[in-house]
Design brief:
8 helices; DUF2913; DUF2913 family protein; 5-stranded mixed sheet; 14% strand; alpha+beta
């Protein structure tokens, strides 16, 4: 496990233990109070510089989510996800989990990540992409049918991608995924493939 994953896992573990203690002590007794507690905990962690400098952007992102989205931010769920992703053997997880991990990492680096409905993917209302904006756009239908009940990939996932491809490739590779250019007139169209997946 690399140090970045170890540090993020440690941050998430500390947050989850603090929340567990607050629940046991009756300080957090509802989802809304969980979110408020974790938002305050993250604000204190940021102010007191409790964690290594490399985690400043992670703390800032979590804090912003908690403040702006409130209950919808699901801070306990995000911390649990970060802890499981950083603490366990990522390559031992199923394809869908590893893709979610990669896309979460992409979002943390400032990329746009969107899942597009059929009308946004093609046709008159197709979303116009800017080559100067780093983004990854997935097809909702392909995501819905692309994995079996065990989270294993069944079909190549089409994605429209703009931005720094080498940076994206590095994030995908860390999660056991790869990108291939699709044979298409669409210059932004790529296929996302899990390690070991072979198209029929």
């Amino acid at each position: 496990m690399d140090n970045d994953n170890l540090n993020v896992s440690h941050l998430a573990w500390c947050g989850l233990i603090a929340l567990h203690t607050a629940r046991r002590d009756g300080i957090a007794t509802s989802p809304a109070q969980d979110n408020l507690f974790l938002t305050r905990w993250l604000a204190n962690a940021e102010k007191q510089r409790r964690f290594p400098r490399e985690l400043a952007s992670d703390i800032s992102w979590l804090l912003k989510e908690g403040r702006e989205k409130g209950l919808r931010a699901d801070l306990p769920g995000k911390l649990d996800y970060l802890w499981r992703a950083g603490n366990g053997n990522l390559q031992g997880q199923n394809d869908l989990f590893r893709l979610q991990h990669a896309l979460h990492a992409v979002k943390l680096t400032g990329w746009i990540y969107m899942v597009l409905a059929a009308s946004e993917w093609s046709g008159r209302r197709q979303l116009r992409l800017s080559p100067t904006v780093s983004g990854i756009y997935l097809n909702r239908h392909a995501l819905d049918v692309g994995f079996d009940e065990h989270g294993r990939q069944r079909i190549p996932l089409p994605a429209r991608i703009t931005g720094e491809l080498p940076a994206l490739d590095k994030l995908l590779q860390r999660s056991g995924w790869r990108r291939e250019v699709a044979r298409s007139a669409d210059e932004h169209l790529h296929l996302l493939l899990a390690d070991g997946f072979r198209a029929a």
